[in-house]
Every structure is written in C-alpha cells, then in structure tokens.
Write a structure and sequence with these properties.
This protein is an alpha/beta fold and 423 residues long. The chain is 47% helix and 13% strand. It is elongated, with a radius of gyration of 27 Å.
Length: 423
C-alpha cells in the first residue's frame, strides 16, 4: 500500500489528528519498510483497551510492509508521563517493572508478527538510558531543549497550575522520550513515532532533538484520544479498566463491554479497534441502522475484538453464557457449562438435597439465602427461579439440566450456578 493510501486508510478510520509534513511523510512511507515506534507505559502486567488502539495502529503499518517497534518503557516507566494526569504516579520498583514487561510482551506477540522481513520488535528504553550519566544527558539532550518549550506543554502547565504541582522527575519525562526517538533513529533506523494526541509535544521534542543533533528529518503522527459520546473515558467501567488479560477481565465481561457500546460510538470503534475492511464496516452500520434494536453492529464489534484478543472459542463461550443469562433459547448443558467461572458456583454431591424441602436445601447450601427461613420467605414471595422457572414451593422437585446444572436466580440480578456430582 502506497504512503498516501496508508494515510487515507488511517484518516477514514478517524486515526489522524496531527502529523508532520504530509508530502515528506508520504515519501517516507512510499519508500517501503519504514521503521516506526509506539510507546507503551508498563504500569501493569497487562495491556488495557486504552492501549489497543496504538497496538493496532502498529499492526496496520506492519500489514502494509513497515517495521513496528513496541517501546515498553522500562526507564520512562520508572518516571511517569504527566500527560493526561492530575497527580504524580507511583514509581515502579525493578521487580514489578520486569513482571509488567513480561506480561505485556506475551500480549504483543499475539497481536503483532515478530517474525519475517518486517518483524516487530519489543524494545526497552532502560537498555540505552541506564548507562547514561547525568552530565552526559544534560550536555547531549538538555541543552537542545528550552524550558519554554517544556512549560508550554499543556499537561505540564496544567500540573504546574494545580494544587500539587509537578516534580522535576515527571517534568523531565519529555527529555527522556525525546532521547528515545533520537536513539532509535540513530541505532535502529526509526523515522516515525506514532501515538495519541496527548503525545504530540513529546513526539515533536524528539523530532527537534534529532534535527539538532543529527541534522536528520524524522516524522510523527498522532490519533485523537478515544472517548465515549457521553464524555466518559473509553475502556473504563465502574470497576476500573477493561484489561486484555483474561485473569483481570473475563473474556465474557470483555465481550459484554462491547455489546453495550452506544449506537453513537459503534461505527467509530469498529473502524479503530478492529481490522475489518472499511467497506464491510459501512455495510454493517447500514444494516444496523435499519434495525438498531438487533444491535448487529455491537455484536460484530464484540465478536471481532474478542476474537482478536482471546480467540474464536471465547467468542462462542461468551455468547453461550449471555444466552444462558439473558434468554435467547432453552437452557442447555452447553450454555450452562459456559457460565462456569462467570457467575458464582457451588459444586455438590447428588444426595445433597434429600430433605422434604430440596429447594430450601439448595438455596442455603449455595448461600443464595442466608438461612432456611430466608429461603422459605424468598420462595413465598416469588423471588426464586431455577433454570428459568419460578419456584412456588419449598418442596418443589429439582430438575437439573443434563443431570448436572441448576441455575439459581434470586431477584433480577443475583445468579448462582450449582453443579451436581462432578467438577
């Protein structure tokens, strides 16, 4: 794909905010095999949805024949970027940082191709900054950047004007990132840095430093920060970030996050967080607008992103679990099996409900109800369903699906899976 076509694809997806001189950038990309980098903050052992747009941007360039460098900042992660923050971040110790780097690398290997002629690489800026002395850094980097430039950066200025101010440690972050870009250009032939729009000041600092030190012209490109139409930060829930690590955010919860995307946001997110062709997305959105109640676009989005991160088997399991929880057909053993690990679960022996009130036994044993009295009272009020059927009496017969599963529902939201006989 020619350089102009690459930029047009990014524009069509809403992934261009600022960039250096377009003609020169197109010429660079037309030459083929451009090395570019994107920085990832290693504050956790997993990427989150906020990182995905950048990783997929690297993937888009790689699919067009260019070489991505994923810079996971072992050095800058110890410092912290003030961009988009109102307070000082906690500094990471070496052991925690290494754990984070290892976790992120595993996820990057599932999204980028680390083999072939344009193989992706993960680089760590600690490798080239740890041996640089303070006096050398001030002479070779600091003298090329004015304090006026640094203070003019919105994120720095807002922190300086805030109640807590900004430490010299975070104030120096721009210099470190500028040094990264210069070093990667000199040692790995990197000519392009990409990132969110809040990184434009850091990117241009690296461009200026390289021009002053090496006399070379290098380039930058940013995309708009992703927010939801209601103003909330994309990738956040009431419980915090939506993580790519399935141990932190279950694939089912991940899939459901995208199923709940607002109609006003779904086309933009399909364009930016999937690898689907633009014309296919346009057709999907057209169909969605004809019957919005079917949420066809959200389903396509949830399936595509979940498959990309967790694989097609987890897409199927997530959909089966949603059918078990929200309807959409009979409760089957396959659907109830898919709920395991998603809702609270109790494993019992087959003779656990042998009294005259088996439903009461079930509710107390699974701790859905706090006592036998609580169980009887809730049953009498019509507040218990088992496998979708409302229970009218404590002595009702229990009918397990496939002889194994009882899905207990108390009220509208509380659900508990009881598995009989074996794990």
């Amino acid at each position: 794909m020619h350089g102009a076509a690459v930029l047009q694809d990014l524009r069509s997806r809403g992934l261009v905010h600022d960039h250096t001189h377009e003609g020169e950038l197109v010429k660079l990309l037309d030459a083929g095999g451009t090395t570019l980098y994107h920085g990832i903050d290693p504050t956790a052992p997993s990427l989150h949805l906020g990182n995905l747009i950048g990783v997929l941007a690297m993937r888009r360039f790689q699919d067009c024949g260019h070489r991505p460098l994923a810079l996971v900042g072992g050095a800058t992660g110890m410092i912290g970027d003030p961009s988009g923050r109102s307070d000082e971040r906690n500094l990471l110790d070496a052991a925690t940082l290494q754990q984070n780097l290892d976790g992120i690398r595993g996820q990057l290997e599932g999204l980028l191709d680390f083999s072939g002629t344009n193989a992706a690489r993960m680089v760590n800026n600690h490798d080239w900054t740890s041996g640089v002395g303070l006096l050398d850094f001030l002479r070779d980097v600091g003298k090329h950047v004015t304090v006026n430039q640094m203070v003019a950066k919105d994120s720095v200025r807002s922190r300086m004007e805030g109640d807590n101010g900004i430490s010299f440690t975070e104030f120096s972050y721009m210099l470190l990132q500028a040094f990264d870009f210069w070093w990667l250009h000199e040692n790995m032939g990197c000519d392009l840095q990409i990132g969110g729009s809040d990184q434009w000041g850091n990117i241009t600092a690296g461009i200026d430093l390289t021009r002053r030190r090496s006399g070379d012209a290098i380039h930058g490109l940013t995309w708009p920060l992703m927010t939801r139409s209601d103003g909330a930060k994309f990738g956040k829930t009431a419980d915090g970030a939506v993580w790519l690590d399935p141990a932190r955010t279950l694939p089912y919860e991940f899939h459901q996050y995208f199923m709940r995307v607002d109609d006003r946001d779904v086309e933009r997110i399909l364009l930016q967080l999937t690898l689907l062709p633009i014309d296919r997305i346009a057709e999907m959105v057209r169909q969605h607008q004809l019957e919005p109640e079917k949420r066809l676009a959200q389903s396509e989005l949830a399936d595509s992103v979940t498959a990309l991160i967790h694989g097609s088997a987890e897409v199927r399991r997530s959909k089966l679990a949603a059918e078990a929880l929200f309807g959409g057909g009979d409760l089957t053993a396959e659907r109830l099996e898919a709920l395991r690990g998603i809702v609270p679960e109790t494993v019992v022996e087959s003779d656990a409900f042998g009294s005259a009130e088996p439903v009461v036994d079930l509710l107390v044993h699974s701790e859905v109800c706090s006592s036998r009295g609580d169980a009887r009272r809730t049953i009498s009020q019509g507040g218990i369903r088992i496998n979708g059927e409302r229970i009218g009496a404590a002595d009702s017969t229990l009918h397990a699906v496939d002889g194994r599963f009882l899905l207990v529902q108390r009220g509208k939201k509380q659900r508990h899976l009881v598995v009989i006989g074996r794990t």
